[in-house]
Design brief:
The structure holds two protein chains of two kinds. In chain A, 18% of the residues lie in helices and 37% in strands. By secondary structure, chain A is α/β, with parallel strands linked by helices. Chain A has two domains: 98 residues, Beta Barrel (Elongation Factor Tu (Ef-tu), domain 3); 122 residues, Rossmann fold, CATH 3.40.50.80. In chain A, strands 4-3-7-1-2-6-5 form a seven-stranded antiparallel sheet. A seven-stranded mixed sheet of chain A has the order 11-10-9-8-12-13-16, with helices on both faces. Chain B has an eight-stranded parallel beta barrel with strand order 3-4-7-8-9-10-15-16, surrounded by seven helices. Chain B has a four-stranded antiparallel sheet with strand order 5-6-14-11, with no helix packed on it. Chain B has a two-stranded antiparallel ribbon with strand order 1-2. By secondary structure, chain B is α/β, with parallel strands linked by helices. Chain B has a single domain, classed as Aldolase class I (TIM Barrel), CATH 3.20.20.70. Classes of the chains: A alpha/beta, B alpha/beta. At the A-B interface, strand 15 of A face strand 5, strand 6 and helix 7 of B.
Chain lengths: 274, 305
């Protein structure tokens, strides 16, 4: 059930270079969202910026009794909306609608899942790690361990941009870092690190399109299952505008699918990467 | 307070003047969680064409100051799919459904109108004579003779009330509205989007895959108010205003300017429950003008400021 609700900002703290985590009090949406789904956030009482913007769920926030009461969103400041968002203070309202999109696949009875993130693409994986390892349940589902091990391969341009690494480690995830300039982890692209390690799949990726394309190619060469979470320019987030389409391969040829409702998570093998 | 919200435009009857615009409400299914359809005056689902169209190359939208530039390109699965898969759901909803069609040619419009005309449960058909994002799309409603001919020929094959959705990308819209009336339209929708463009100078490229797109949102509201006023004072035919309407104040502005009904468009994207909240607030706003019905306030703009 998609809900449009006002939310109150609880805190808005810096995690890394140009990277912030905003915590919103919104119990109704927090109770129904699951990992890999997203939210649209909008600054109220202005028409510039006009549209909401899609943000992955970082994780839900629980009260002392373990009930979901809030939403954490981690964002990189890149444009007009995120510049506004960065200035939002505790107590101020944000308009939210969600939960949106399909969410990450569930993998019962699989030994290991490997998440691959680039840039700000780590943000959807924290809740997923907790769901897979059974330390958290979402959308009213009980916490059930689905896999033995979850790894995160995480590439950043430079050490200062690595955000939330401790959150992932505390969640029980094995984190392997790569950076463009070698200031943290292995120097080079995260897909190069992945190719060198060749960990077990299935794989789930999120990040810039060239990275996802390289990931899809690499995992295809291993005959491994790979899902990717896409981000495209989006006006509504719930399937009405037909803006956010991505090209897919179908038996009848090429078609477009809406990232907001038919995604954002797609089987990488179904996407038209060229 | 018992305010009569009902409006009549030609053969069209709506329970209230708040409709939602084509291309901004999907096929209504997408909005089912967010909007109580029973509250709406009507729904205009996304434009359908004869054959399925993949739509334009992404990026298809870009935000501009208080505006949205789009070039979706009439992405749809064609009229037969619409009639089979979307219409049964739409006509099951407790509100008026206005089918919306766009032809590539005049004959194409007639064929689409005929198919819509044979379908049951529809309150009317809106002819999209003005999509700016497909080849030939804007040409129809820039020529009065063609506008009249298409409406007339559609009228001959379609028993449903007809609405002509016109383009604002023209110096004087009044002759086009007259042509639509002469062709037998029950109402005009004023107006479609304004042709625009966005550029990324760092990459030295247009932002949209289609290069140009149609501008909508609050940025265009004054432009559309001017168009509605021009057509209203010529007293040609009932007007459905569409363009930048997002709040109750916007709705009231268009009603007093001379629109008998309005469509919420881009606001459905960024404030999906806006339409319902506007309907909730409408009786009090009408009453504040000392009127007992929406009909009484339509076109009550005084000449001087």
């Amino acid at each position: 059930m998609i809900l449009q609700r006002p939310a109150v900002t609880v805190e808005n703290v810096q995690l890394a270079e140009r990277t912030f985590r905003i915590r919103l009090e919104q119990p109704e949406i927090a109770r129904s969202i699951r990992p890999g789904q997203f939210l649209m956030l909008r600054i109220p009482e202005t028409t510039d910026p006009l549209l909401g913007r899609p943000f992955a769920l970082y994780d839900t926030v629980l009260d002392s009794g373990g009930e979901p009461v809030g939403l954490d969103v981690v964002y990189l400041v890149v444009g007009k909306m995120t510049t506004h968002l960065m200035a939002v203070k505790a107590g101020e309202p944000i308009e939210v609608w969600g939960p949106l999109g399909n969410g990450f696949p569930k993998f019962p009875n699989i030994d290991q899942v490997t998440c691959v993130a680039g840039g700000i693409g780590q943000t959807p994986f924290l809740a997923y790690v907790r769901e897979l390892l059974g330390t958290r349940g979402y959308a009213g589902q009980p916490a059930v361990r689905q896999v033995n091990k979850v790894s995160l391969y995480y590439g950043v341009r430079s050490a200062g941009f690595a955000a939330g690494v401790e959150d992932f480690r505390q969640a029980g995830c094995d984190v392997r870092l790569a950076s463009d300039d070698g200031t943290v982890g292995t120097k080079g692209f995260v897909t190069q690190l992945l190719a060198a390690d060749k960990p077990a799949g299935p794989f789930v990726g999120c990040g810039p399109e060239p990275m996802l394309k390289a990931l899809a190619k690499l995992t295809a060469s291993w005959n491994a299952s790979c899902h990717v979470s896409l981000e495209t320019p989006m006006a509504c987030g719930f399937g009405a505008c037909f803006s956010c389409v991505t090209p897919v391969c179908t038996p009848a040829g090429r078609d477009y699918k809406r990232v907001c409702v038919e995604g954002p998570v797609f089987d990488a093998a179904t996407l038209a990467w060229d | 307070m018992d305010i009569d919200l009902k409006v009549r435009l030609g053969r069209l009857d709506f329970r209230n003047p708040v409709l939602v615009a084509s291309g901004t409400f999907g096929y209504a299914r997408e909005m089912a969680d967010l909007v109580d359809f029973q509250q709406l005056g009507g729904i205009v689902p996304k434009t359908v064409t004869s054959a399925s169209r993949p739509g334009n190359l992404p990026p298809r939208t870009v935000e501009t100051p208080s505006g949205l530039l789009n070039a979706i390109g009439l992405d749809n699965d064609g009229i037969d799919h619409f009639l089979e898969h979307h219409l049964p759901y739409l006509t099951s909803l407790p509100t008026a459904i206005i089918g919306n069609v766009a032809g590539k040619t005049e004959d194409d419009f007639v064929e689409l109108a005929q198919k819509m005309g044979q379908a049951k449960g529809m309150a009317g058909v809106e002819l999209n004579l003005s999509c700016p994002n497909v080849s030939g799309g804007t040409d129809f409603a820039t020529d009065p003779a063609i506008t009249k001919r298409i409406v007339d020929r559609c009228r001959a094959v379609c028993p449903h009330p007809l609405i002509a959705k016109l383009t604002p990308n023209i110096a004087n819209i009044v002759p086009i509205a007259k042509a639509a009336a002469d062709g037998g339209a029950d109402a005009v929708s004023l107006a479609n989007t304004f042709l625009g463009m966005a550029v990324d100078w760092r990459r030295q490229k247009p932002v949209l895959g289609n290069i140009t797109g149609g501008l909508s949102g609050p940025a265009i509201k004054p432009l559309v108010l001017r168009i509605v006023w021009q057509v209203a004072k010529a007293n040609i035919l009932p007007i459905i205003a569409v363009g930048g309407i997002a709040t109750l104040d916007d709705v009231m502005e268009f009603l007093v300017t001379g629109a008998s009904a309005i469509q919420i468009g881009t606001a459905n994207f960024y404030d999906p429950t806006a339409s319902v909240r506007i309907v909730d607030g409408l009786p009090a706003a009408v009453a504040s003008l000392g009127a007992g019905s929406v009909r009484e306030i339509v076109g009550t703009l005084k000449r001087q400021a």
